[in-house]
C-alpha cells in the first residue's frame, strides 16, 4: 500500500509529465512546420526574386555601362555573357555533386557569393574619376566666350590632337574589367539555386503539387525583374556623379545618348538583398519528409532515419561512379536531347531580345532609358507573372499528363511566335540629323557619307566634325553640333542654352537651335503603345506555355538523373546561347552605327546614333529566324512524347489515386494497432 504522500507525489509527477508531453509534441511540431517543403519554397522563391532582381538590373543598366566606359556594343555583349561564363564553370558539378551534400546550405552560400559579385560590379565608380561626356562646351570654361560656335577667324588648332598618353589612360585602363569579374562571380553564386532548389522540391513535394510550386518559383523570377526594372528606371534618371557635380551646369538630359545614370547605386542595393536572402537557407534541413506524410513522422521516424543513413552511405560510396552512366543515359534520351536543341535556339532569340531591348526601344522611339525601362516592367512582367501562375494551376487542377503538356507548350509557343511578326509594323524613321540621315535640305539620304557633315553653310566655320554635341533647329532638323549648324551666337547657360543666327537652319524665324536631338513625332509614340500592347499579349501567351514545357523536361528524365539533367540543360543553354548570343548580336548592332563617339585621344568610343532601319532588321529578324528554326525539333519532341513512355510520366491518375489510398490504409492500420495501448494507458491513469 502506498502512503498518501507518496501517492500525491506520483500523481503530481504524472500530471507534470502529461503536461510536458504536449509541450514537447508542440515544440517538435513547430520544428517540423519550419522544416516543411513550403518553408523551403518561400525561401527559394525569395532567392529567385533576388537573383532575378540583380540580373534584370544588370540588363537594364547595360546602356549606361556602355556610355560610362565608352565601349562598343560587342564588349557590352561580352560583359552580359560573362555571367553565363561564371555559371558555366560550376553548373555540371554543382548539379551532380550538390544532391549529395546539404542543398539548402549550398544555395545560401551561392546567395552570399552573388552579393559579393554585385558589390564588385559597383566598385569602378569609386575607383575612377568623374564621368566627362563628349561635348564642345566645357562647363569649366567661360560659356560666354562662344569658342564652340561658328567663327570664320578660327584656325584648326582647336582640332583635337591625339595624345598617346591620353589613349593609354582612357582605353587601356580597362575599368570595365571589374564589371566583368563581378558578373562572373555573380554567375558562380547563382549556379546552385535553380538545379538544387528544383531537385529539392521534386524530391520532397507531391508530384501533383510540383507544377504549382515551380509556377510559384517562376513567378518569383518575374517579381524580381519587376523590382529590378523599377530600380533601373529610378537610377537611370539620376546623374552618375550626382552629389559631386553641379547638375545645373550639365548640357545633357536623360534622353541624350551621352547621359549616364547612377548605375552603381542599384548594384549596392542588389548586393545587400542577395546577402540577406541567404540567411534562411542556413537553418533548413538537408532532407524533408515527403509532402503529405508530415503528420506521421513520429511513427516512422526510426525507419526514415535508417533509410537516410543507408542512402547517405551509398551516396558516399557512389559519389562519382554514377556520373558517366548518368551522362550516357541522358545523351541517349532523344526527347531530352531534342528539348535541349529547342531550348538553345529559343534562348538565343530571347537573350538577344531582352539584352538589347532598352537600346532598341530608345533608338526606335526616341525615349529616355529610364522611361523605356519603366515601360518594359509595366507591360511585360505582370502578364508573365499571371501566365506562370495560371499555367501551374491548370497543370495541377486538370492533372495534365506529359503528352498533353507537350501539345499545349508547342501550340501556345507557336501562336505567340506568329503574333510577334506584328512588331515589324510598329516602326519609326531615323532621327533627322543633317549630314547623317538627311541632307542639309531635309531630304532623306540612304547612306552615311562622312564628308556630308560639311556643307556650304558651315565650311567657313572650321568645326570639329567628329565631336557629338547635337542641337535641334527651328526647321525640325538636328545638327551634330551648334558649330555645324552655323550658329554664331548663344544665350543662356547649361541645358537652357539657345543658339541664334544659325546659317544652316532654313526657317522663317530667327534660325535658332536648342541643345539635344529633335523629338520624334506623335505617331512614333502611338506606335510604341502598339508595340508594348503586342508585347504584353505575347508575353502572357508564352508564359502559359512555359510551365507545361518545363514539366516535359522534368518528366522525360529518370528521378535519379533529374538534378544532373537540369544542370546539363542549363550548361548547354549557357555555352551555346547565353555566352555567344550577346557578343555576336552586339557586333551586328555595331555595324548599324552611323556616328561613333570620340575619346580625348581621337579614338572611337560608344555609338551615339544608329541606322534604325538596319537595327530593326537585326533586332527583330534574327530572333525570328532562330525561333522559327526551333519548331522543327519541337515537332519531333511532340511526336516522341506521344509514342514513348517517359520515365517520369504517369498517364493514369487512377494509379496515383490507388497509391494514395494504399498509403492512407497503412496509416489507419498503424493507428488501429496503436490505439489499444493508448486506451490502456489512459484507463490506468484514470484508476490511479
Automatic annotation (TrEMBL):
Major subcellular location class: membrane
Every Kazal-like domain range: 451-506
Keyword annotations from UniProtKB, A to Z: Cell membrane, Disulfide bond, Ion transport, Membrane, Transmembrane, Transmembrane helix, Transport
Stretches for region Disordered: 1-24
Listed InterPro entries: Kazal_dom, Kazal_dom_sf, MFS_dom, MFS_trans_sf, OATP
Topology versus the membrane: Multi-pass membrane protein
Superkingdom classification of source: Eukaryota
Domain (Major facilitator superfamily (MFS) profile) ranges: 40-645
The keyword Transport is annotated on this UniProt entry: yes
Compositional bias of kind Polar residues: 1-18
Keyword Membrane found: yes
Subcellular locations according to the entry: Cell membrane
Membrane-spanning intervals of the chain: 39-58, 78-98, 105-127, 175-200, 212-240, 260-284, 335-352, 372-394, 406-426, 530-554, 566-589, 618-641
SUPFAM superfamilies recorded: Kazal-type serine protease inhibitors (SSF100895), MFS general substrate transporter (SSF103473)
Pfam family, one: Kazal_2
Similarity comment: Belongs to the organo anion transporter (TC 2.A.60) family.
PANTHER family assigned to the protein according to its UniProt record, in alphabetical order: ORGANIC ANION TRANSPORTER, SOLUTE CARRIER ORGANIC ANION TRANSPORTER FAMILY MEMBER 1A2
Protein name, UniProt field: Solute carrier organic anion transporter family member
Gene that produces this protein: LOC101831756
